[in-house]
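Example record used in the benchmark description.
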Amino acid sequence: MSDIDDPRLTASGLLMEAHDGLVRKLLPGLAAHGLARPDFNVLIRLARSPGGRLRMSDLAAQTALSTSGITRVVDRLEARGFADRESRPDDRRSTYAVVTAEGRKVLERFLPDHLAEIDRWLTGLLTPEQLDALLEALRTVRDEVFPEATSH
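Model output (structure tokens):
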């Protein structure tokens, strides 16, 4: 077998193609609700975090955005009333981003359609066993190549 036929190329290529295809299928739903992809990523991470908050530095690391990039996204969310910034008396060096009640309402309106699209283009195509295996495999890879995604 030559390198051109190596199954490692097939595995990485299929993962990239699946990712690109999913993004193409899911982005119109985000846009229909007035959300850019980075805005949704930040908003959902905040909503799923303890207390609905994360330090700005952790949020930047988890979203693979620069400090200035995360600042711009949180600025946009804050301007729309979806997020706030807060300082904590016990940690004066850090600023936290916090999802607001309005931000949660946006997610509540958006998520049923978004979950239906995820089911249509990803989870609904797999058996429960395939989905479990996929989740386990993706976590294994993610934890190695992007450990910051789960840091707090």
